[in-house]
Amino acid sequence: MHLLLNYGNIEIEKEINDLLQKLKKFALYEKSKDDIKQLAECIAKIHSYNLSQSNLPIYNAQWVIDLVQENNEYRSDVISALKIMAEMEYYSADIEFKIKDKKFLAWDISRANWHNDYKTGHVGSYIWDIAVIINYVENPSFSDTFLESYIQHGGQKPTLLSIYANLYYVKVAEAVINDNFKNVIIMTNAILKQNMFMIEIIANETLSRLGIVGF
Questions:
Q1: CATH of the domain at 79
Q2: Which of 29, 43, 60, 63 shows a CA-CA span of 20 to 30 A to 98?
Q3: In sequence order, what are the beta bridge partners of 3?
Q4: In a domain, 117, yes or no
């Protein structure tokens, strides 16, 4: 069920804030299976709200491109790779994704923590939120439990390409924030020269078991 959030809907803002407060009980470095399942369920609930009419700022590929544009010696190659991944993600997505995939994002990449509340939050693709969380933890066992529980509790199943694209956006954004582009340049060169992007924070067995494939 998708719940439409009209700007200024105080009741639904409160519901999202309550879910964010629940999330604040979970530290991502504490990775017990029960905790992972509970936080995945909570995030799936946050993503159930349709925020297509929201005026909140958006975290997406363009936001990352703007970050890189500001000041970075690698900006030309990185922006080229970002545009390639964004185009591939767009053309592999269904119409609903293209038009209205704006969900409240549980994790604030700028603060490396859960968003404080609705009014200071951001929106974007649910896949961005998945990517930023599993990238932060960087543990295949966490990714396995988190993705399985997220899908079981009503979260939409992402495609492999959409995960790869959003993981690249997130890694570039973190590189800008932390001023450390060493690993991102390796990924960027792979995208530009080999048309590929490999990750190790989601096991192939997880992708196969959950049916996360292709486009």
A1: 3.90.1200
A2: 43
A3: 49
A4: yes
Structural domain tally of the chain? 1
pLDDT (tens digit per residue) in 140-171: 999 999 999 999 998 889 888 899 999 999 99
Tell me which DSSP letter residue 106 carries.
S
Residue 34 belongs to some domain of the structure: yes
CB 102 within 8 A of CB 124: yes
Q: Residue 72 carries which side chain, given as an amino acid letter?
A: N
State what percent of residues in the chain have pLDDT above 70: 92
In a domain, 109, yes or no: yes
Q: How far apart are CA 56 and CA 131, in angstroms?
A: 20
The pLDDT averaged over each successive group of 10 residues in the chain (215 residues) is 52 93 88 92 94 88 92 86 91 58 92 93 95 95 96 90 94 93 91 82 92 78
Q: Is residue 170 part of a domain?
A: yes
Q: Quote the domain boundaries for residue 101.
A: 3-210
Q: SS3 sequence, 8-58?
A: CCHHHHHHHHHHHHHHCCCCCCCCCHHHHHHHHHHHHHHCCEECCCCCCCE
pLDDT one-digit tens code per residue, 168-200: 999 999 999 998 998 899 999 999 998 777 778
* DSSP single-letter state for residue 71: S
